[in-house]
Amino acid sequence: MADEKKSVVTEFKEFILRGNVVELAVAVAVGAAFTAVVNSFVKDLITPLVAAVFGKNDFSTLHFTINGSVFNYGSFINAIIAFLSIAIVIFFFVVKPLNHLSARRRKGLEEDDSDERPCPDCLSNIPKAATRCAFCTSEVPPVTA
Fold first, then answer.
1. Are the C-beta atoms of residues 80 and 73 closer than 8 Å to each other?
2. Which of 65, 68, 77, 127 is the most exposed place for a label (fewest CB within 10 A)?
3. DSSP string across 64-113
4. In the 8-state DSSP scheme, what is residue 117?
5. Which pLDDT score, from 0 to 100, does residue 66 have?
6. 132 - beta bridge partners?
7. pLDDT tens-digit profile of 122-141?
8. Which CATH superfamily is domain 8-113 in?
């Protein structure tokens, strides 16, 4: 009867050692490290560039008043600059390189896994082992591995 029931410690150990839990923990840690890098990039490189162009590196003090209501649009401008900076960094340094690597990998897999090749005359797909095209009947050179 004791063999049929798992102890709480055993169940917890199985839960912790599941692949998806470990991968999630790694993703959170890498995400936190990446956040620090991106925030430093924005603070140390982008913000001084904005200050050089606009003469201010912090727009949070900008506001206007209508009928006693204060509209702090400067904080909104800061948030937009930070968002766009982070989005640009993520797009050009994460998304684009990963898409490029993924496309190269897919292309390599497609070329290796295909049992067909194009006929040099009519461009129809023919088996790699074929020496004559079934569509245009032209002779095709054998595939060299």
1. no
2. 68
3. EEETTEEE-HHHHHHHHHHHHHHHHHHIIIIIHHHHHHHHHHHHHHHHHH
4. E
5. 95
6. 139
7. 988 888 888 999 889 889 88
8. Large-conductance mechanosensitive channel, MscL; domain 1 (1.10.1200.120)
